[in-house]
Amino acid sequence: MNTNNVSLTISAVRPEQYPAGELPEFAFAGRSNVGKSSLINKLLNRKSLARVSSTPGKTVTINFYNIDDTIHLVDLPGYGYAKRPRSEVEKWGRMMEDYLANRPQLVQTILLVDSRHKPTADDIQMAEWIRHYHDRIIVIATKLDKLKKSEIEPNLELIWQTLSLGEEDILVPFSTADDEGKITVWDMITMMLAGEWEE
């Protein structure tokens, strides 16, 4: 995938703002502050294309990143952050649900979880939703560099068991401190684009 030509197409809050056309979309979902923007920047070899915030819940739009007019990577609003008015949280939830359920360009929703912690009830719910609408669950375990080596295997096993992942599902350890997981994510996207995974 050519990442030399990338741009933010739009930060959308309504379906009519979503990009027109038929570019395949790969959406990243996860709790606030799980590292979606950092992951996108790492995948695209950028430092600040996707806005990284130290304030959880800052992303309130669906951000579409155009990759060489070939695909869109989609950064979804983070969930599970309580310090927002309930009305806002519900609005974001409806926006995400509408996108994930009704967007024909969406090829795969990818769930991000923090490798340091057991997945939350919100993470479990999102994993179940992904299983309902997609053929498999793809999970990226972020912030791997913040774990001790002795913690990695048991933490990944806890994520696998908590999310009830199966034979067709995939768990990718990922670190923005090095290239851990980066090639794997791009390989998966390339395979899905080529139709090399059975539906």
How would you portray this structure in words?
With 199 residues, this protein is an alpha/beta fold. 33% of the residues lie in helices and 21% in strands. The chain is built from 5 helices and 7 strands. It has helices spanning 36-43, 86-102, 121-133, 149-162, 182-194; strands at residues 6-12, 25-30, 62-67, 71-75, 106-114, 138-142, 170-173. Strands 1-3-4-2-5-6-7 form a 7-stranded mixed β-sheet, sandwiched between helices. Helix 4 links the parallel strand 6 and strand 7 (170-173). The longest helix has 17 residues, at 86-102. Mean pLDDT is 88; it is low at 53-57.
Summarize the structure.
With 199 residues, this protein is an alpha/beta fold.
Q: Tell me the helix content.
A: 25-40%
- Strand-and-helix sequence, N→C? EEHEEHEHEHEH
Kindly report the average pLDDT value.
Answer: 88
Number of DSSP helical runs = 5
Low-confidence stretches are 53-57
User: How much is the radius of gyration in Å?
Assistant: 16 Å
Silhouette: globular
Termini separation comes to 22 Å
The tally of beta strands, per DSSP, is 7
Q: Oligomerization state of this entry?
A: single chain
Based on secondary structure, the structural category is alpha/beta
- Order of strands across the main sheet: 1-3-4-2-5-6-7
The major sheet is characterized as:
7 strands, mixed
Strand content: 15-25%
